[in-house]
Protein 1
Amino acid sequence: VLELWVGDLKVVFSGDLGTPRNVMEGRPSRVEGADFVVIESTYGSRRQKGLEETRREFEEVISRAVAEGGKILVPTFVVDRAQRVLYELLLLRERGLLPAGLSIYFDSPMGKRVTDIYRKYSGLLSGEVQSLMLQGKDPFGLPNLRYVESVEESRSINDVSRALVMAGSGMCTGGRIVHHLRHNLWKSSTHLVFVGYQGRGTLGRRIVEGASSVRIMGEEVAVRAKVHTINGFSAHADSEELLEWASGFSGSPLFFVVHGEAESASALAGALSDRLGFKALVPSALSPFDLRELKSAKVLPAPARPVDERDRVRRLLEEIRSSFDRLASAHDPEALSSTLPLLEAARTILKTAEEKAGYRSA
């Protein structure tokens, strides 16, 4: 949560507001006073499952996947979600529900560094995790866990027939999970376990919505893997939790509802107004507002017309072209080689953009 003062006006940003049920961190900070609140709405229109129900669901999915053999792929955000998954896997291992011989790969150059930061600042983690650490246990210390950093190590996982692989990105828009999907999504023995929100237009969303095939790295890949979704691990507050946090504000702040699909944002704005009596609006992208005028306005203005999306697309493409020209003219082979994973991810994202625009390359 960020508090910002602009002269005599106070603006509060919720950021990705955590759930009070968050297993990794403590409860989100409460703020009482503000003139304006910018609040996220990822789950502004729905409730999440409880902790115990989510854990039972995860246990059933992992147990079934392990029993059937094959690879278990877990697309995950490298910060927070990955550490939560490692912790939940450890709990299953301690209960004897995860075979000691199952190889587990955290395939991310950042993975070990981020997890070490969580260990270093363990005092900021939840009471549940700290309780485990007081027993002398490492909440992320799974037997047979291997952190994968190099491209060569990542590719070698293709030769392993039975393993659990965690890799970013969480929505499959890039990163090493794309490589693993290309090699395993077409196999009926594969289990694909989503543990986070899949945004509209992403590869992960298309798979979750039941696509029979998807385009990955320029190839059409059949979706024969068994697909599971565990939404309860999300670090985002659900609709009731968002309202509970908002109810802590005194006075009459104006809420800007952002960071959510149209249905979720509109539902939360309506609930803020109908149930809590706050003024709320859903701004369009890049719409400007004069906070001083809004502070004294009796009627909320309609959001200003946003910048023409076609102009934004053209500007972005020009920036991408400039980046391409600079990289193409680089003279250091070693430096270029280090960018290969990023370039492969960028290619995948651009291919997805082409498909959304209605262009299908040969």
Protein 2
Amino acid sequence: MPPELRRSRPVSEAMLYSSGTTGRPKGIRRPLSGEPVGAPSPFLPLLQRLYGFDEQTVYLSPAPLYHAAPLGFTMRILRLGGTVVVMERFEAEEALRLIERYRVTHSQWVPTMFIRMLRLPPEVRHRYDLSSHRVAIHAAAPCPVPVKEAMIAWWGPILHEYYAGTERNGFTAINTEEWLRHKGSVGRAVFGELHIVGEDGQECPPGKPGVIYFANGPRFEYHNDPERTAASRNEKGWTTLGDIGYLDEEGYLYLTDRQADVIISGGVNIYPRETEEVLVLHPKVMDVAVFGVPNAEFGEEVKAVVQPVNPAEAGPALAQELIEYCKVHLASYKCPRSIDFATSLPRHPTGKLYKRLLRERYWTGHQSKII
């Protein structure tokens, strides 16, 4: 493009779509910046400050580039002159091999990838030289505390977590040192102001869960979907991604669950994530999804679908073992009433779980979640 056109034309803005884990993917439109073509993203300095990206960066992307985070990080590192290594699909040992082979300095993961790497035999995990690896970023889903503790014990204090969405309406971040003082947190806001709002529309005090909103963040709208756009805002103009969480006294955010995933059984709210984080730590569990299924008396009951490490063990005996395991660690009403098994769970290649696809199998024939 001739220089005079580059100077006169406003920069374009990619319209990416959400992953569709809770419904049909949504096109996310953001206003144009008005800057000329080629102007750096205002997001770039933030990533450089948080993670130290520069021309020497070698970035491993275990996730596909059609998702917002891998694409955005990859494009910004390439703009700085860094190197990007992209996996065609995630495989636990192959990821370690690539870190050693290409002397990877930075990477980005989701918790299911951590779990699968930790499931590798110790001799495999320690076979590869990971000494070049300085920054391991993770997001997309909450990470169970014991899993993150195990990763820190293995990789050292190089883990960085953030909470954000393709909507880019806000961003929180936390490094390892902070996380060890606030275990389970996804950090404090680095842009946008965090607010937790209860069912009555009022802000919640520290420690009380509610819907997570960002104020004074960048604007966005859902393409050709004014109803969903309106539903993402409250009367103050704050925006939400539909997640539930709480703040501690120091302003650190903790995720509880997706608003759409909460199980209401006998009038009691049950957060599936808490049950999932218990089950996924069982040595016979490779992956798990927990959600509500119909119950004539209580409206919903807790159901788990488990991908076992050894498919041959799937059956009533393992189901009962897992239910009893939950009862040791959780209040009884949070434990699955029943467990089904699957050879794999419907996950997006970025690691996000399409829980609605599992849930729909059990709700077929019901007009609503009110029986």
